[in-house]
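#lab-general

N.A. 3:47 PM
ok so I finally got the sequence cleaned up, no stray characters, all 257 residues accounted for. can someone with queue access submit it? mine expired

B.Y. 3:52 PM
send it over

N.A. 3:53 PM
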Amino acid sequence: MNRLKKGIKPFIFIVFIFLIFIIGYRNLEYNWQWYRVKPYLFFFENGEFTRGLLLDGLLITLKISFFGLIFSFIIGFLSAFARLSSSPVLKSLSWLYVETIRNTPLLIQIFLMYFVISPVFNISAFLSAVIALSLFEGAYSSEIIRSGIVNIPKGQYEAAQSIGLSIPATYIRVIIPQMLRQTLPMLAGQSVSLIKDSALVSTISIYDLTMQGQRIVSQTFLSFEIWFTVALCYLVVTASLSFIIRQFENKLKFINQ
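B.Y. 4:20 PM
back already:
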């Protein structure tokens, strides 16, 4: 009975929001032209499927997000282990990195990477965006991973050492799997944030999904239609990622039962 009540409340909330949206949609004095949106997603030319500007932008967003996710987790793990190491230098450097990144806006970091650092090392705008996003999200991932490792009982370390596992093997086979079970929901949320934060790379002339949306709106004045479509694209991507991570989380729970 309690589960049923818990399931009904979110459903009522969703229905309520949907009704508000429908009422606002009908009462808004705006000439909706949804039929003009499709060519910006895809069209068929001489019988061949051709991507529109929005799909081109979505692919750029997916590429930036994909590399950003990989490098942010690598940076997060390295930074977390540096904070947990016995080296004062590594601890200080990791602490400085995390605190600096977490306490400054991502937009400024993107500008700093693109306008200050990239000209010195001849880094492209795409790579600048990936590095800035990776460093930013890696700082948050670092704290999530570190807190997950710290919360592992010391008895797990002692048990692993008692059966002859080396320190690297202890972390790979015992500590990290348990840490992932605890922190996976938070890491999933951070991954979703990275995809949404990637919209800021449009400020450095990368024609991602957001930039393409701005470009189309400036040409067609289809403000609501285009931005709703852009929002839907982000929703599909983030919801799909959340679903995949949730399935992986369930698989981890099943394996450890």
